[in-house]
Amino acid sequence: MNAVVAAPLVVRLLQAAQDTALAARGAAGVATGAGRQALATSPWQMVLQATTPTKIILIVLAVFSIWSWVLIFWKWSEFRRVAREGDEFVLGMERASGLEEVRRVLLHLDESPYTRVFREGFQFFRDLTIPGSSDQSGTRREITPARLDTLWMVLEKELSEERDDLAHGLPWLAIIGSVSPLLGLLGTVVGVMNSFIGISARGSANIAAVAPGIAEALITTVVGLFVAIPAVIAYNHYAAKLGLFASELEGFASEFVGTLAREGHV
Fold it and tell me: Would the pTM of this model clear 0.70, i.e. be above it?
């Protein structure tokens, strides 16, 4: 009789144990699925799951990248415009045979660094002319060596202003090119710190504890280099173009003074 009563009880206990095992297995499956869903499988998911310091660094690098490309295209258009204006100025100079004729030719050209340097030098040359030493009949006008040195100073001042105007924006390219890798390195340090924190929290050094921090470190490093490399290349390229532009203006200033000497004004 006791055996008959105990049999259903055993069956119920076995059924309850089976239900408990199935429930535990289902919960483990849900947890595993959630873990797999939380695990980043692409760089974009790594960025979205990154820590707050890493996201801040990535946002700053993104702003630097946008600003650097704006500067790159802006300086490209400026140097292209200056090169076109320089070609037009040289053609105008070739068609003229004297300072007065050059001045008349330049009146029909667009405003450019070359025309501004010439007009500044020509106007100052007129102001330096000794009163009473010339008239409207074409008599030779001469200036003293001391005033010629002053003319050189005026031309050099105008050259410096034109060079500085064209150099606007280049320091920012240098700053972005030098700071971006350092920001990437800072993100690397943050990622390594997160890796050690994960090891400490989980009590093990398996790949699940180390991978997230290392991934963040690699992402910030790559983004920092991606931002810095174009900025450095553009800065060096435009700095070389700026040097050529300054050399052309200095050559024109020397040619201007040489024309004065050739026409007997010096």
Answer: yes
